[in-house]
Write a structure and sequence with these properties.
320 residues, mainly alpha, Topoisomerase I, Chain A, domain 4, 0% strand
Length: 320
């Protein structure tokens, strides 16, 4: 047993050492400030040429270039961890995206090439109805999908978050707390979107994922209120410092999405100080995904000639 622990520690010592080097190459907030001030997409790409991003590939098709970059990060991390279960939780979300295209949208839409299972193979899996290669929660959901499309998508999301909890509940406190928060904050967004549509509390019950620290009955009771008090619901939770009042939550859901993203990145940030373990690798994965999200926002803003301040308000914090 002791020998196995020492071997795992040596393995993660090497892996974390590699990640520490890569963290130094993450783009700082100041660089995004320079990108925002660029006068055109061409100038933005010239600035990106100063980094490790391939400027020619970005100029040809920036979405494809970013997907290729993430695919490389995923391969690298899978190799470092030998497909550690904790890492695979974060990668299988792309398979969930592709499963939704196959079973909810009848194959329409743009599949992701980032899934653990290639889309062509996943298509064969669905056609054959043999889900043994998928996490057990997703396999069970696919075997008994509801009839309607939206409920099918919800069933896959719920299965994905159950799968993540099964794996991360046995991991470190940092990853457990992070996943618990992901569930609650997804429910917060579902609450806001469904309430704005004016749908019943039964709809929320059908679509929400299994909550984290906020009891399911508390969510449903607030939803049934004539004037829900979400700030009050959050005040005794780790999310009390989201800094959003009820009025802002109801009137600016994109702001809520940005604040939630920033809160979650801050929640995983202690991974940077962990010397041994998978947490720094997960932190780097999330940091790289955040960096690419911000680059997409900048380039899309330039292409659509949006004002600098509009794009700035949409940018998320960086992992530094």
């Amino acid at each position: 047993m002791t020998g196995g622990i020492l071997m795992a520690e040596r393995h993660y010592a090497y892996a974390v050492g590699r990640i520490r080097i890569l963290e130094t190459k993450l783009l700082p907030a100041s660089f995004f400030g320079r990108l925002l001030k660029a006068a055109s997409v061409q100038e933005t790409l010239r600035l990106l040429a100063e980094t490790d991003y391939p400027s020619e590939a970005l100029a040809a098709d920036y979405e494809q270039a970013f997907e290729h970059e993430l695919a490389g990060v995923y391969r690298f991390l899978r190799g470092l961890t030998n497909d550690a279960p904790e890492l695979m939780v974060f990668l299988h979300r792309w398979d969930v995206h592709n499963l939704k295209l196959l079973v909810v949208a009848d194959g329409h839409g743009q599949p992701s090439r980032l899934g653990v299972i290639p889309f062509t193979e996943l298509k064969q899996v669905v056609a054959a109805g043999d889900y043994t290669g998928l996490p057990q929660e997703l396999a069970a959901a696919l075997s008994q999908l509801p009839a309607s499309g939206p409920e099918q998508a919800a069933a896959l999301d719920q299965a994905y978050y159950r799968y993540g909890w099964r794996i991360l509940d046995k991991s470190s406190a940092l990853l457990r707390d992070y996943w618990r928060a992901r569930r609650d904050l997804l429910n917060l967004l579902l609450f806001l979107r469904l309430r704005k549509k004016g749908v019943s509390v039964q709809e929320l019950a059908r679509f929400m994922v299994e909550p984290g620290v906020i009891d399911r009955n508390n969510w449903l009771a607030q939803y049934a209120e004539g004037q829900p008090q979400l700030a009050k619901l959050l005040e005794a939770t780790p999310y009390r410092n989201l800094g959003l009042g009820d009025e802002e939550m109801w009137t600016a859901i994109p702001v809520v999405e940005r604040v939630i993203d920033d809160w979650l990145l801050e929640a995983i940030a202690p991974a940077k100080s962990i010397p041994l373990g998978i947490e720094p690798l997960i932190g780097y994965l999330l940091a790289k995904e955040r960096e690419i999200l911000n680059l997409r926002l900048v380039i899309t803003g330039k292409l659509n000639k949006l004002p600098e301040e509009t794009v700035r308000r949409r940018l998320r914090n960086v992992y530094l």
